């Protein structure tokens, strides 16, 4: 397996010749959807097996689960096949980076300790093959969505998380799963339709961020459930990975080029 191992104490990656960086998000495993979660899980595992021959880095940009909450001695039931495959790839030397989303923001250190996967709780700048990336899930960024931004601060508050932890896991996990699926305010979701770039919060966020950081070449986010590729200027592009509920889309970065792959559309 080609490796693109990060430099020591750095978010800089130099991919080996022929190696690719993959970006994917918003699987929402556990969610009752048009395509059952178990079917989508198996499809994802097949995809992981497919990319392992040339993957130099894998970026999972959040909401892999429709709900995730870690107690000290308990994690949500299920997803064993997905977790096992990620462990296999990590053990084989593939660097995996996980950016928590609004549905899995309660992650702690389970992925780090058990799977050797790096966890990030906010957008981070990476340099891959001498190209600058700003990478994150995307929830709560840009204008609007004020109510969700307030709730996000509450959910990220250590005192609030400590208090919730006192609920028995059978109660806490069931309640949180119900809220995750039923309460769109908690989900921080907005219309999953493209209504023009000036109404795309993440595009506007990237456009504004670029004013202070003109060195960024690629802004890569999830959350919107829409595969998007929108130029910001001659050197910078905003990308959205889409989702694995309807689009089964992802991004590939090779050499110095990014490609948005939309299998359902291409078929």
Walkthrough of the structure:
The N terminus is likely disordered. The protein has one domain: Metallo-dependent phosphatases (Purple Acid Phosphatase, chain A, domain 2, 4-Layer Sandwich). The protein is 32% helix and 20% strand.
Could you provide a short overview of the structure?
The two termini are 28 Å apart. With 267 residues, the chain is α/β, with parallel strands linked by helices. The chain has helices at 37-51, 80-91, 110-115, 146-156, 158-164, 169-182, 184-187, 201-212, 263-266, and strands at 12-13, 20-24, 55-60, 96-99, 118-120, 124-128, 131-135, 218-221, 227-231, 237-241, 250-254, 257-261.
List the helices and strands and how they pair.
Blueprint: E1 12-13, E2 20-24, H1 37-51, E3 55-60, H2 80-91, E4 96-99, H3 110-115, E5 118-120, E6 124-128, E7 131-135, H4 146-156, H5 158-164, H6 169-182, H7 184-187, H8 201-212, E8 218-221, E9 227-231, E10 237-241, E11 250-254, E12 257-261, H9 263-266
Parallel strand pairs: 1-6, 2-3, 3-4, 4-5, 7-8, 8-10
Antiparallel strand pairs: 2-11, 6-7, 9-10, 11-12
């Amino acid at each position: 397996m080609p490796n693109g191992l990060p430099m020591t104490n750095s978010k800089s990656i130099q991919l080996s010749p022929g190696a690719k960086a993959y970006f994917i998000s918003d699987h929402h495993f556990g969610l009752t959807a048009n395509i059952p979660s178990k079917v989508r899980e198996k499809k994802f595992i097949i995809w992981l097996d497919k990319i392992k021959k040339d993957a130099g880095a894998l970026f999972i940009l959040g909401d892999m689960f429709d709900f995730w909450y870690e107690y000290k001695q308990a994690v949500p039931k299920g997803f064993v096949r997905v977790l096992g495959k990620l462990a296999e790839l990590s053990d084989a030397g593939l660097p995996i980076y996980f950016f928590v989303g609004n549905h899995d923001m309660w992650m702690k250190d389970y992925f780090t300790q058990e799977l050797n996967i790096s966890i990030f709780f906010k957008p981070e700048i990476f340099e891959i093959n001498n190209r600058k990336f700003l990478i994150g899930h995307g929830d709560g960024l840009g204008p609007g969505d004020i109510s969700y931004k307030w709730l996000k601060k509450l959910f990220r508050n250590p005192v609030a998380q400590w208090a919730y932890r006192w609920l028995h896991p059978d109660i806490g996990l069931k309640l949180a799963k119900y809220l995750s699926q039923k309460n769109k305010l908690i989900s921080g979701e907005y219309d999953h339709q493209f209504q023009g770039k000036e109404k795309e919060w993440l595009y506007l966020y990237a456009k504004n961020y670029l004013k202070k950081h003109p060195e960024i070449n690629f802004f890569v986010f999830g959350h919107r459930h829409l595969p998007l590729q929108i130029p910001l200027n001659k050197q910078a592009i905003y990308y959205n990975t889409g989702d694995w509920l309807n689009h089964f889309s992802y991004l590939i970065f090779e050499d110095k080029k990014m490609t948005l792959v939309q299998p359902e559309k291409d078929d």
